[in-house]
Amino acid sequence: xxxxxxxxxTEILAYLQAAIHLEAHLEExxxxxxxxxxxxxxxxxxxQLEKNAKLIGINRMMTNMKQLSAKAxxxxxxxxxxxxxxxxxxxxxxxxxxxxxxxxxxxxxNFSEADIQRIMALPRETLISDLEAIVRDSIYRNDFFQxxxxxxxxxxxxxxxxxxxxxxxxESSFPIILxxxxxxxxxxxxxxxxxxxxxxxxxxxxxxxxxLHLFRDMVLEEHINSFNRDLVASVPAQLAxxxxxxxxxxxxxxxxxxxxxxxxxxxxxLIDTDFITYLVGHxxxxxxxxxxxxxxxxSERGWIxxxxxxxxxEIEKEFLKDSNPFQKKAxxxxxxxxxxxxxxxxxxxxxxxxxxAPELNPxxxxxxxxxxxxxxxxxxxEEEYDDDAVHTPMQPLSVTxxxxxxxxxxxxxxxxxxxxxxxxxxxxxxxxxxxxxxxLLLQR
Length: 444
Known about the structure:
Blueprint: H1 9-25, H2 29-41, H3 46-68, H4 113-120, H5 124-140, H6 142-147, H7 152-155, H8 157-168, H9 174-179, H10 187-192, H11 196-208, H12 212-219, H13 226-242, H14 247-263, H15 273-285, H16 292-300, H17 306-309, H18 312-319, H19 335-340, H20 342-355, H21 362-377, H22 416-428, H23 434-443
């Protein structure tokens, strides 16, 4: 309107919101963020600000996840197969300590300090023997339990056993834990779903930190799918972050793995470009720049998904940056840490600290906050996400106080981080926890 230079505030608000809706729909996110910053300056109603931020965040997340789901130039995929042979059992194992029967009737959330103390007081040798029998029970009676409706009280016995074996640091039990990854594509997902990293990673770390050769053998074993191999490979990378004095050992581990892959390019049961891409991501986590020449060889073979890790030029630049603190995974300090929720809260806080990074502008900060809250809880019960929001008429606006920081949930048994990962996987069909971190990076 060239004949006007003064506009009513409601006209400006309506224009800015319409622009944000259209720009989000057209994936013009920089412009949408700029207009959201203008809305924030106008100090409008908190719910309206969050609604616009959510629209940008979720649309941008969708765009990013589409990019992450792209394939490497010469995509190869290994299909995991069930490799163990056993006679299915109908009955629970005979345990030397009846105290452990509680694993089959009480979920981790309801496990008391008295329960923990009673079990930890048992003789170590026979306790570990029973815990190993319970892990095997998840294999021997897998079909039986999968036919039942999932019940936390009856189905978390494996999680209990993993907790205690991890806390006891029973290194001799490590091969039994690795057998879980030999059970085909669905076994790990069926037992742990979105909590795989929470239940399995600490035990893998504590039992295997002095047995890196077993990690190597597992990731180089044929017909293990990319998701299982990725979780196993994450431990040596984390070892370099938690124990920097072992960095050279970790570098040697990754070098041996990559060289073996390069020497066996035609092995269809071994070469999986998703796993190789994740492997590069783990190396980037601890800035293993010594391995860059080998990564360049991998890239030349078309085995790296550039939409996930970036092209080789971007990878080279990433090595020169400081490592992000949140890439160092938290570890429980003792068995009580597992059950109290403190460990889970730490993992959640890692992501919260990231989305509250001070260098974000007000709009980006708000987008990160509301998107993270959305992913923690899924879609609101009262308001479903509208794919056609660009056509939705603008609602009347009111002026209110400035937005405050997002609330921080504490100590959930199923942490917000795990739920967020599950929601992302539901959107994009992705199975790797690295995708969650990468999607957050792309939001920045």
